[in-house]
Design a protein that fits this description.
The protein is of the alpha/beta class. It contains 28 helices and 19 strands. The radius of gyration is 28 Å and the shape is globular. The two termini are 38 Å apart.
Length: 701
């Protein structure tokens, strides 16, 4: 077995180097060899000081994810840290790349820290529903103070080396070659007889209980529903009020609480699901990909502009096409306004904006797209319009160019059929706002070539999206499931629930907004127009109740926030919704007309009737092969529709509560409400797995 950690010497300085590609993770072998090397350096009388550094592209980036969920392997990270901290000789950590999680905890076990200017440090354990478990909650407050330490740990976001230096997490930032700078720094420390400086011996500043209470209030919204943030606060309280060893014991107790929590299990599920989503069964490392150097976007509206921003952000020029110069100018102005908001927050400079805007090339002529490598159509959701655009693209684009539609519901194969190159056609369904939302449904048509699909999946990562592959069906994964969620919410209005009651309970479940608040935000006219287009194609709902109230509001011009009236009233143009007596009266009239007797609907029914249709339809999507795996469905709903991450997604949530319970409830609703329209017909896969006592996670097609 090759050594992953080596010890060499430069005069009286021991250089301990970790070289475990790709990210120098703290595997069992790395941990063992770190202890061996530090022990050897400690015993060597010729060694006066020790430098810990890493080869490759980063310092220790954290734990070894292959060990997640397995029994702990000896030695653990605390043993490594104890060896470093107690070796009796000054230790300097030389940081580059990212020192995260356990990697930053190792760095804090050293007496001094030196960092390249481009380095970043952080403790992102909260993103997995955990707290730092190797002394991070005790050492970081001693270095930087309790509140700055809380900000780093509760957000989970890394900070720059310069900021780390400013708050005291790093002693010095350098622009020189790192190891040479570290040697020079250690030589000065030794020449000055610099003392050992274990962080555990530092005093933590006193922080009042009021300060912690205020901090809790300040993060209440972002921490809603999550388990770990409160445990981080409790651990830091222990750091400032107890001895280091007592604080360490408290950290361990809280870490185990988090590890056993369903929230952490859900977040760890999502962590691995993101990595799994990129794996397509018939695509491997040998599958060729196409080169994407130029992109075109057809449509300069909000969606088209947002899509374009993803590509110029990584330096790829975008030709942006629309029917008139005026439409393009409006689109460019919107893009510039987005960047100016970032400028006002200090996240960009004027020069940054001009550089990005220079990568946008406006045109009203399709012939200008002859050399682009990828075209993304982002026109209105109308099949005839999209077909006409693809006929034009087929006539002007070079051979080998990828032709993508951003349709959210329409048949990609039908669009591809109007071209002479269906193998080059696919769906790239961005979510609004496209420059912000991380989800990208990559829709594989019947004839989509493997290299096109492989390129799209690779490109999604490059533009910082989570690419999830979907097959072709109405609405793909996300929007197909959305219908049942919205349908039941609408039916419950007729049955006696109010918009504010349903929205509050869905919000309390963990969604950022309830279905009616979302509809008012997006515009009730948007959904109504989609249903009108579906009706033209012969797909109108056979149930008069389905979307009845939404369509009535559309007919009344109550489009939502844009008209200051929708499911709610918005007084004086405010965005805060107020219950609407007019809507309440409308619902009562329609319920009476349909002979529906209104009643009180309890919390459990509202939640199950909103969430269980997602699960049931997800089971059909999984069995049909529209989604490759249940975890892909979870990613779509977490990243595209606001399903609470700490519940892991609808399919994971179903597994947690038990498929038998879901199945039995659906059957009960079928028997209670009838099954004329098949709303509560259990999906065959759900029934099969429930009766076999299995889970969606176990299912393999």
């Amino acid at each position: 077995m090759n050594n992953l950690v080596t010890l060499t010497k430069h005069n009286s300085i021991a250089l301990i180097a970790v070289n475990s590609p790709p990210v120098n993770a703290l595997s069992q072998q790395v941990r063992s060899e770190l202890i061996e090397c530090f022990t050897a350096a400690q015993k060597d009388d010729d060694v006066a000081g020790i430098i810990l550094h890493c080869q490759g592209r980063t310092f220790i980036a954290g734990a070894d994810i292959t060990e997640f969920g397995k029994p702990p392997l000896s030695p653990d990270l605390n043993a490594v840290i104890s060896t470093i901290e107690g070796n009796g000789k000054p230790v300097l950590a030389a940081l580059h790349g990212t020192a995260l999680g356990g990697g930053f905890e190792v760095a804090m076990a050293c007496d001094y820290r030196l960092a390249e200017r481009s380095a970043k440090v952080g403790l992102p354990e909260v993103l997995l529903g955990l707290i730092p478990g190797a002394g991070g909650t005790q050492r970081l407050p001693r270095l930087v103070g309790a509140i700055p330490a809380l900000d780093i740990m509760v957000s989970g976001k890394p900070i720059s080396a310069s900021k780390a230096e400013a708050i005291g997490a790093v002693d010095k930032v350098v622009d020189d070659e790192l190891v040479a700078a570290a040697i020079a720094y250690m030589e000065r420390l030794l020449a000055d007889n610099a003392p050992l400086r274990p962080v555990r011996n530092m005093s933590a500043e006193h922080v009042s209980e009021d300060s912690f209470s205020e901090y809790r209030r300040s993060i209440a919204k972002q921490a809603r529903g999550y388990f770990a943030p409160e445990r981080i606060i409790q651990a830091v309280q222990a750091a400032v009020s107890s001895s280091f060893d007592d604080g360490l014991a408290k950290e361990r107790e809280l870490f185990i609480e988090c590890l056993k929590s369903p929230e952490s299990e859900a977040l760890r599920h999502l962590f691995f699901s993101e990595r799994q989503a990129a794996k397509i069964p018939d695509i491997n490392a040998d599958t060729p990909t196409r080169t994407i150097k130029q992109v075109a976007v057809v449509g300069a509206g909000t969606m088209g502009g947002g899509i374009a921003m993803n590509f110029i952000q990584i330096g790829i020029p975008v030709r942006i096409v629309d029917i008139s110069h005026e439409a393009i100018e409006r689109g460019l102005a919107t893009i510039r306004k987005n960047y100016e908001r970032a400028l006002s927050k200090g996240k960009m400079t004027e020069a940054d904006i001009e550089k990005l805007m220079s990568l946008l090339i406006p045109t009203i002529n399709y012939s200008d797209l002859s050399e682009v490598d990828l075209v993304i159509e982002a026109a209105f959701e109308n099949m005839q319009i999209k077909k006409e655009i693809f006929r034009k693209l087929d006539g002007v684009c070079k051979q080998g160019a990828m032709l993508a539609t951003n349709t959210s519901t329409l048949d990609v194969d039908e669009i591809a059929a109007v071209t002479q190159r269906p193998a080059d056609v696919l769906g790239l369904h961005f979510f609004s706002p496209a420059n912000v939302m991380r989800l990208l449904e990559v829709v594989r048509g019947e004839h989509t070539a493997l290299d096109v699909l492989a390129t799209a999946m690779k490109l999604s990562k490059k533009i910082n999206k989570i690419g999830v592959m979907s097959g072709v069906c109405f609405g793909f994964i996300g929007n197909r499931m959305l219908h049942g969620y919205g349908r039941e919410a609408g039916l419950m209005l007729l049955e006696g629930a109010t918009p504010e009651q349903i929205d509050k309970l869905v919000y309390d479940f963990g969604f950022p907004m309830g279905p009616f608040a979302v509809s008012d935000l997006a515009g009730n006219d948007v959904g109504a127009k989609v249903r009108e287009e579906r009706a033209k194609d012969g797909f109108a709902s056979k149930d008069e109740r389905d979307n009845l109230i939404s369509d009535k509001l559309y007919q009344l011009g109550r489009f939502g926030q844009k008209t200051a009236a929708g499911f709610y009233n918005y007084e004086d143009g405010a965005r805060t919704p107020q219950p609407s007596p007019e809507v309440k009266a409308l619902i009562a009239v329609e319920a009476q007309r349909l002979g529906i007797e209104q009643r009180e609907i309890d919390t459990e029914e509202i939640i199950t009737r909103c969430i269980y249709p997602l699960i049931n339809e997800g089971a059909r999507i999984l069995e049909e092969g529209i989604a490759l795996r249940a975890s892909d469905i979870d990613l779509v709903w977490i990243n595209g529709y606001g399903f609470p991450p700490y519940r892991g997604g609808p399919m994971f949530y179903a597994d947690q509560i038990g498929l038998r319970k879901v199945y039995d409830t659906i059957c009960r609703y079928r028997d209670t409400f009838g099954n004329e329209f098949g709303y509560w017909e259990p999906a065959p896969l759900l029934e099969k797995l429930a009766l076999e006592g299995k889970s969606f996670a176990e299912y393999k097609k």
